[in-house]
């Protein structure tokens, strides 16, 4: 196996989602070398053997060189956990290689933006802390092509109680839900932070069952506000039992998208779309990371981007992303439009 690239370093690559990501990268690009990084070298090496064409490395986020030395060894850095010191980002900037971040809440994006601003010409930085690394925003943008203008985007997501993933994912969830003072939404054309009673919602699962939900603000909200100019944008998270588990099967993950606006013919248009992955959130998150890696390296979608600050939807085509979601097991269906979808 040969490649013009050095290995892609996946920090947290021996975790649940990181392992999925490494396997999907291998499936999409069989010759691309991968370095599975983690605190436990033995576990990282075991995952590397399972993936094939990979190595395991020990990563220490407490060190500026990540415990990897100062020589250039990698073609990109992906991190699946919160790096409070931004050591991994500075490492990527020092070596001039792409950096992909996945674990920041909207309210805590400032430090990464500041780090980029102080070294803007060193490396391409991709902030991909969207819901499941893009599994909601890209379908929204694909569906949005049917509209002349959009008034409302309402996203409901269900994370099954048995589908949290590994310790890093749980840490992110607890940190973001515990520290965020409120959830960013767009209401009547204005940025609005929903808190208290305002943050509560109801989520209608794909089998029609209604569940308690709460406003949640991954990067999708600010990105959709910038991209679509919709006057109302909100994402509600239900942490409960998925429809598949209610009927006795294994857990799944669900994304329900309601869009209301004016169609290309000038008439009012409301649509509801339901997306399900039968294996839960990990495969979709991992796919989003794999598509980000291939785009940042110029393996799909055009030449590798220059140094800059990016969001995934600026670089990756929505139609391509949705096609890949279907290729990797996600099902798409039209849902029944409800009265509160507008």
Task: For the structure shown, list the relevant keywords.
342 residues; alpha/beta; Rossmann fold; Dihydrodipicolinate Reductase, domain 2; 2 domains; seven-stranded parallel sheet; 16 strands; 30% helix
Walk me through what this model shows.
This protein has 342 residues and is of the alpha/beta class. The protein has two domains: 8-131 and 284-316, Rossmann fold, CATH 3.40.50; 133-279 and 322-341, Dihydrodipicolinate Reductase, domain 2. 30% of the residues lie in helices and 28% in strands. It is built from eleven helices and 16 strands. The strands form three sheets. Strands 3-2-1-4-5-6-15 form a seven-stranded parallel beta sheet, sandwiched between helices. A seven-stranded mixed beta sheet has the order 10-11-12-7-13-14-16. The chain has a two-stranded antiparallel ribbon with strand order 8-9.
Strand and helix map with partners:
Blueprint: E1 8-11, H1 16-28, E2 34-38, H2 41-51, E3 54-58, E4 76-79, H3 87-95, E5 99-101, H4 110-117, E6 124-127, H5 137-143, E7 147-160, H6 167-179, E8 183-187, E9 190-194, E10 200-204, E11 210-215, H7 220-228, E12 232-240, H8 243-246, E13 253-263, E14 268-277, H9 281-296, E15 308-310, H10 312-315, H11 318-327, E16 331-334
Parallel strand pairs: 1-2, 1-4, 2-3, 4-5, 5-6, 6-15, 7-12
Antiparallel strand pairs: 7-13, 8-9, 10-11, 11-12, 13-14, 14-16
Helix pairs in contact: 1-9, 5-11
CATH architecture of the largest domain: 2-Layer Sandwich
The count of β-strands is 16
What is the CATH topology descriptor of the largest domain? Dihydrodipicolinate Reductase, domain 2
Q: Stretches where pLDDT falls below 50 for ≥5 residues?
A: none
Looking at CATH, the homologous superfamily of the largest domain is Dihydrodipicolinate Reductase, domain 2
């Amino acid at each position: 196996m040969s490649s013009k690239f050095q290995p892609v370093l996946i920090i947290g690559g021996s975790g649940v989602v990181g392992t999925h990501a490494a396997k999907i990268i291998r499936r999409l690009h069989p010759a691309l070398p991968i370095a599975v990084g983690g605190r436990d070298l033995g576990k990282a090496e075991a995952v590397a053997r399972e993936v094939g064409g990979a190595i395991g490395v020990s990563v220490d986020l407490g060190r500026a060189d990540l415990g990897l030395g100062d020589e250039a060894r990698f073609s990109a850095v992906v991190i699946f956990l919160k790096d409070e010191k931004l050591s991994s980002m500075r490492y990527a900037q020092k070596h001039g290689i792409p950096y992909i971040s996945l674990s920041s809440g909207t309210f805590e994006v400032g430090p990464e933006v500041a780090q980029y601003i102080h070294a803007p010409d060193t490396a391409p930085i991709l902030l991909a802390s969207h819901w499941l690394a893009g599994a909601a925003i890209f379908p929204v943008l694909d569906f949005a092509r049917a509209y002349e203008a959009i008034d409302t985007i309402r996203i409901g997501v269900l994370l099954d109680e048995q589908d949290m993933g590994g310790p890093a994912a749980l840490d992110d969830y607890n940190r973001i839900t515990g520290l965020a003072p409120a959830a960013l939404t767009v209401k009547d054309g204005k940025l609005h932070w929903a808190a208290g009673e305002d943050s509560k919602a109801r989520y209608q699962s794909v089998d029609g069952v209604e569940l308690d939900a709460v406003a949640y603000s991954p990067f999708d909200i600010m990105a959709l506000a910038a991209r679509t100019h919709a006057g109302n944008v909100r994402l509600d998270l239900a942490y409960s039992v998925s429809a598949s588990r209610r009927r006795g099967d294994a857990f799944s993950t669900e994304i329900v998208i309601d869009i209301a606006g004016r169609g290309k013919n000038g008439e009012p248009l409301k649509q509801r779309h339901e997306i399900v992955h039968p294996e839960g959130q990990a495969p979709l998150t991992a796919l989003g990371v794999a598509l980000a890696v291939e785009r940042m390296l110029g393996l799909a979608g055009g030449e590798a981007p220059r140094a800059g600050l990016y969001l995934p939807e600026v670089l990756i085509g929505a139609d391509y992303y949705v096609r890949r979601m279907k290729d990797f097991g996600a099902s798409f269906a039209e849902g029944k439009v409800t009265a509160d979808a507008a």
